[in-house]
Design goal:
Blueprint lengths: L1 E13 L2 E11 L2 E12 L1 H14 L5 E7 L2 H8 L2 H7 L13 H11 L3 E6 L7 H21 L1
Helix pairs in contact: 1-4
């Protein structure tokens, strides 16, 4: 099975507001960068979308190490929040509806095609690839805001 490294980040200008996401795929040193924009979104939606789009870019099942600065995304899997949400009918422990259900479901479907290992990285620190993903995400916001102005 191919082993891929996936770095991801999402950003928002306002929350909700204009948002961007960026990801870097690394397979044996071959790098692919992806990014995108959403006119009205939240930071969490962009964080999830970055992982979704990275996994969607894979053409076959892979072992994927996902690196994200989003505790929301990483802990949903590492702390088994996803399982609890599903078992509770997509309700949180406080009985509120889980936000971003459609994105979570898409991410779960993609994770079921791969062997995914989750890694939390510190955001806006000295992690070169996380910083690059942040740059990709924020550049999408800036680029699209200029088009809209």
């Amino acid at each position: 099975m191919k082993k891929v490294i996936l770095y991801t980040d999402g950003a928002c200008s306002g929350n909700p507001g204009a948002g961007g996401w960026g990801c870097i795929l690394d397979y044996k040193g071959v790098i692919k960068e992806l990014s995108g924009y959403n006119e009205c979104t939240t930071n969490n939606q962009m964080e999830i979308t970055a992982v979704v789009e990275g996994l969607k870019a894979l053409k076959e099942p892979c072992a994927v190490d996902v690196f994200s600065d989003s505790a929301y995304v990483v802990n949903a899997f590492k702390e088994c929040w996803i399982e609890s949400w599903i078992n509770n009918g997509w309700k949180t422990s406080s009985k509120k509806e889980v936000k971003n259900i459609e994105l979570w479901q898409e991410l779960i479907d993609l994770c079921n095609k791969h062997i995914v290992t989750w890694h939390k990285v510190k955001g806006h620190a000295d992690n070169e690839r996380n910083n690059r993903c942040d740059f990709l995400a924020t550049t999408e916001i800036a680029k699209n805001k200029k088009v809209l102005d």
